[in-house]
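User: Predict the structure for this protein chain, please.
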Amino acid sequence: MSIETLSQPAISLLGSRAMLFEAPGALGLENQQRIWALSSQVAQWPLVAESVPGMNNLMLTFHRPPEELAPLYQALLDEWQRGEAQTLEGRVIELAVCYGGEYGPHMRDVAEHSGLSVAEIVRRHTEPLYPIYALGSHPGYCYLGGMDPALATPRRQTPELNIRGGSVSIGGVQTGVSASAGPSGWNTIGHTEFVFFDAQAQPPVMLRPGDCLRFRVEKVLS
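Assistant: Here is the predicted structure, written as structure tokens:
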């Protein structure tokens, strides 16, 4: 996922019955709290079928195609300019992580890019409490904030075609955990056995925006 810093809000159509609002400003908890507040407000509009917060953006779907776009655009901009923020009180979930070795095949790439030792990468990665900003990409996947910027590593030029579910990775300024097996261009540094998505459970998605993750070292392999 590419995060672009905008100077002004951007609004675009997604077909005839959906719209994307992209917020200005850098990715961060303060901006994301404004996205959460905007989502809660517009979800009450009669035309809106679903309001889905993303990373610095909000997707709306409509019961029917809007008859007039200009008033809808202006209403969104007015609501954003109000500057209201919403704090979501969630749980703190601790994930046991095996770092490096077979669990983290790209740990050395992160070390080479950052100039940090494996031990220092693990220390910095397990130190923060990571707020969940949004869900997306695939069922159960959480977009997290709060990673130490010293760990930022560009996405891989050639994505991996199939990484394990539970892979803990770094992509750009973010870290995350794959909820299921699949392709990824992020740098995998570890693995957790935590189950993020279970189609038979109610609810099937285990985490939600406002929850926080803390990574705990189970072991580190060279």
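The CA atoms of residues 16 and 67 lie 10 Å apart.
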